[in-house]
Protein 1
Amino acid sequence: MAQIENAFDDVGSGPPIIFLHGFPFNRSMWREQIAFLSANGFRCIAPDLRGLGKLVAQTSVCDDSTPEHRLKSVPPATMDDMARDVAALMDTLQSESAVICGLSMGCYVAFEFIHLFPSRVSALVLCGPRAQGPDEKEKLSREAQALRVLAEGMDFAVESISSTLLAQKTVNEKPAVVESVGEMVLQTDPRGAAAAQRGMAIRRDYSSDLPNIDVPTLIVAGREDGVRKPEDADFINRGIRNSQLEVIDDAGHLMNMEQPEIFNDVLLRFLGSLGD
Ligand code: MLT
């Protein structure tokens, strides 16, 4: 997929922290962190990752290909592509290095980024991460999902959110969060979603990268995450020498949106420790 100038936020001044969103979402999922950390002396940079976010949705309106062509013609947006986009954005913003904070797919991009540009990472924050690469079953499932979004659009994906991504307490007590998550999914361009699924299907296995990561690393897990298992976070915690793991109660896969106050405190404490 040709590189597209995706939108980004750049708010506040101070040490930079770059937020990489999950799938199939956009940079708005970091709204609460950007407000909080920019008020606490940090520069918060949050791009929409390649193919995702609102700008791309506008560009695809002109897509006049046949349905058959549309299903086949979407090449993968790889984690490598996305990591290089982040580096290009940092160049544009004259940010030599930063704390890189990813959630889920954003963690795949973060792993790729630190592999490609180790000197540009001062610390890592990995939320709902997984290091292992895809097996055959996962690859087939991602291709099936890609074909389905291209054929049907994003609507069907909204239904699985409450059951798999969010904690029970979020579903019961935080309708605004459920609504924001649904809106992000519906704003996603199906072609961008298919490209990202295909990119995730051919991502590397990051397990053997873990011992080479030597920056301070915070791993954050939601105790009720239905997408990641506790072992996924433990595996990364054991693999990265200088890492710490925080598990947030009453939170699922989108723990930063579900428990923003707790998440922000955890993040601020970690960032505060970096100068020590
Ligand atoms: C995400 O939230 O980014 C996705 O769960 C990532 C994935 O599909 O592996």
Protein 2
Amino acid sequence: MKNKILKYSILAAIIILSIVQVGCTKELQMVSDSTYMLGTYLQLSVWTTNKQEGMDTIKSSFERIKEIENKMSTNLDESEIGQINLNAGKTYVEVSEETVDIIERAIHYAELTNGAFDPAIGKLVKLWGIGTENERIPTQDEIQNALQFVDYQKIEFQGDNKVKLSEADMRIDLGGIAKGYAADEVTKIMKNKGIKHAIINLGGNVVTLGKKADGTSWKVGIQDPFEPTGTHMGVIEVYDQTVVTSGNYERYFMADDKRYHHIIDPKTGYPAENGIISATIITNSSTDADGLSTSIYVLGVEKGMQLIESLENVECIIITEDKKVYTSTGLTERFQIIDSSFQIEN
Ligand code: AMP
Ligand code: MG
């Protein structure tokens, strides 16, 4: 009797073992798709044993991004931000909890940077029209006038989810942070669907989910600001983290040999000009990385690096127009320059 039990137990164990083995041999494959939203090119890649589930996850992710765009876009009058802007100086507008959260997160970065990052930058962004058919150099008067209406301290809240801009000419613009939030939300969806390896790339806002399928870290290329998209000047090794860059090459126009780009200094009203041409943040939350990369770009090398060093678990790579590269102290081992015309400056 005892023998029989033993025999059946061994048999059961072997069967279970072989089922596990079949499970393991089902290979991970990459499923990838791209689209255009949030004013940029988006690409999602997931590694899965079930192709259909991978495709469904990507579809849900794109739907979620659309939902965020429909709430937070400055360019859509019917979005929640569009409604706040249309009712500026007039009435409170009731918006969703997540829109309030992102406005508050943006205000947090405005406070942290003493206004170098300012979600109330909308009037200036519209005036310059960079990346739109209305792009032009505004007059001094126009800039001076617009500057009066860039002040995050004049964003008012009532109850849990009502927002109002205190002056009629004020405009909120979450372009400096919303992509990061969308990337975090996509990461959440993928984790919930059981995805263990993925690359989420929302126009240069990259999130790496897990490690690569072979167990090694991802290598994320850092764009060479002087070369066409896809040319890298360095490589950073990461997993389960985000890599977000703000660069002067993303959106700009040229006039008289000068580059007018899309990151505006709220102190001057002109595109930030302090030597930085790209700022990359490496950290856990893509919302934070997005807010910080724009912030650092405006703050400049010295103040920017000071801020990054004061934050835990946040690293950065700053490139200046003379091809110098500044990295935060926690990064040295993980970042490698692959184009020797760039020089580390620490
Ligand atoms: P990013 O590419 O993340 O650096 O964000 C740039 C976008 O943020 C611009 O296209 C504007 O929509 C917005 N923006 C520009 N200047 C600022 C600023 N000083 N603070 C906050 N947002 C800004
Ligand atoms: Mg940003």
